[in-house]
Amino acid sequence: MTQSSTYPATPHGVLNTGVNTGKLGMWVFLASEIMFFTALIGSYIVLRLGADSWPVPGDYLAVPVLAVNTFVLITSSVTMVKAVQAFDAGDNDRSARLLLLTALLGCVFLTIKLWDYNHMIHNEFKINTNLLGSIYYFLTGFHGLHVLGGVISLLVIRSGVKSGKLLGGQHFRVEGVGLYWHFVDLIWIVLFAILCLV
Amino acid sequence: MSDHHAPQSLLSRVFSTDHKVIARQYLYLGLVGLLVAGLFALMIRWQLAYPGDAFPILGNLFWGETNGVMPPEFYNMLFTMHGAMMVFFAITPIVIGAFGNFAIPLQLGADDMAFPVVNMLSFWVMFLGAVIMTISFFVPGGAAGGGWTAYPPLSGVANYGVGHGASLWLLGIAFAGTSSLLGAVNYVVTTLNMRCAGMTLMRMPLAVWGLFCTSVLNLLWVPVVAAALFMMFMDRTAGTAFFLAGPGSLFAEGGALAGQSGGQPLLFQHLFWGFGHPEVYILIFPVWGLVGDLLSTFSRKPAFGYKATVLSMITILFLSQIVWGHHMFTSGMSPLLGTAFTFLTITISVPTAIFFLNWLCTIWRGSLRFTPPMLFALGVVFVFGIGGLTGLFLALQALDIWLHDTYFVVGHFHFTLAASVFFGTFAGVYYWFPKMFGKRMNQSLGKWHFYLSFVSLTFVFFMMMYIGATGAHPRRIADPTVYNFLGPFQDANVLIGWGAQFLGVVQLIFVWNFFTSIRSGEPASDNPWEASSLEWVAPTPPPHGNFPVAPTVHRGPHEYNAPETGERGWLTQAEPSA
Ligand SMILES: [Cu+2]
Questions:
Q1: What is the pTM of this model?
Q2: Is omega for the bond preceding A8 within 30 degrees of 0, making it cis?
Q3: Taking CA atoms, which of B3, B143, B200, B522 is between 20 and 30 Å from B271?
Q4: Predicted pLDDT of residue B549
Q5: Using CB atoms, which residue from A10, A13, A51 is nearest to B547?
């Protein structure tokens, strides 16, 4: 985001709205993501209400394991908040450590998720077993991809923070990844509630 | 972005993050898409004109066993790919990708898009989508043949009708959608946050307003259709049954769909049209905006009711999201719900009429300059007027059940969207060509291109409405002559066929003009149209970073012959008052 001596004549990012361009972009992108998951969750509701009968989720899904996973992801949101705070306080080292911890918690989540898939497939509960299976794998699969994207973003942003390339002026980059991470966390809580508990 | 003067390697030119380069890449991709999808249309019309006859050229090459007659499966593939490629790989890259990328930063006085790297990615994601679509023609079974709406259940089954072509089709459109999404994030943020000093929202050219509304709809509804496409992809490849209901003979033991059931085909229709109706506005908003600007510029008058035009576009943006049910009147929908959708759909004609009348008032008693962009803009006014009026018929539940799936719908749709966007494409290309390439296109060839296109296109789509208005001629059949009751229409089909071929040949004028002008057109001045929006203030063609000196905006986008413009009668937005 540095400016060369002659160009651009118009500084990049005039901020007519007063909101940082990167942050605005992240919010706009998240609006789109919300519509995506709304469509998925809405389809689930329609399919479930339209079905003649619906299996008891607990008969197929490892609910206690998924509850632990929920806890892992919520914890990672806390470490994310701390990482942004540390970055704002100018403590890049601490911020980088917390970002790494957040990414690791994301990896723990994904590992448990893969174990969960593996376990279920082993028990002959697959994506084409019934509608619950289709929806479970499809929704949590897309969510898992989002977690993976989040982990990669966290690692990228962490290297910037650790090397000191990212300074206070680029606050929005860390905050933007944080926004995305909280969003992914929130989606999981919703998915866990409607898939496993209802 | 750090260094705008670095020497350019081939790689950095191909994977450029400059919005003007990306705009040209989109333009080329879109024009190729237009050519391919247009050829499909010509083949469709030839088949309908002479069904049962050996098809010229292709018949000898591919269909020896039927004596050169086009097989119905191939016809299905043609009209499916015609629709899908026109929408996602011709119109979208041209009016949104090329025009949006070129116009938004320049007209707002910005140095580039808000996120140049994301911008580059959005083009290459669309390019990948186009590659996937191209590959789909060459897999066993050929490209998708389920219609551009791809209604389940048949489209959701792996080995029913077509093979992997339909799965690739779903992927290709998902890529195009992702590209639109990335572009939309850029357009929205650039418009909100990157305007130069003095460029208030209400001083933006209407083209930017149109592109902004388009992007908002893209952001909200592309993810919805993406979800539906992915679900259908899973139905086809992973054995799920999101859109496959049972029971029925197809679903019984030993049937094609055995083992897959419990889902809801209608859910797909809702998701698809939830996106599909906003999609027509996604495609036409940029053209509406551009036409508003062009009518003003070439009438040398301020756009009549600028604020009302902007507000009516925003109103339509909201209304367009709650009318999708008018595509599903024949799906078994409750007539009461259908009435609600009829009412909401008719409501859209109020804001539409407001901006349409604003167009007419803009040209009323203006000093009209009939340049090629102006002629094409006037063409849009005409075809969109016809399309809008015939849309009222289809909004009415009772009439729609009669007209559903006939050529009346095809004619209406092509006037409203296809012809409007087709003319809008050329209006934009003729208008921005001098700024894009630094050369002028041949003006009299441009006018001939318009007149001949206008006559043949209007004829073709009027005839379609005529053969469909009886409620008889369905749009899906490959050979109308197998039905006795369609006999009286065959002469009309022949006329449409020849009209369409003529329309196709006329486009060669444009192709010739486009390429010879790039090579050897006369050099363009900075502001050949005496227009006032900011892109004409920038050097020609604009360098990296666009403006050597940051512009400051003093007035609205089209204050032609307003008192402050003095003797010359016009001022750019960046010039102080005379
Ligand atoms: Cu519609």
A1: 0.93
A2: yes
A3: B143
A4: 85
A5: A10
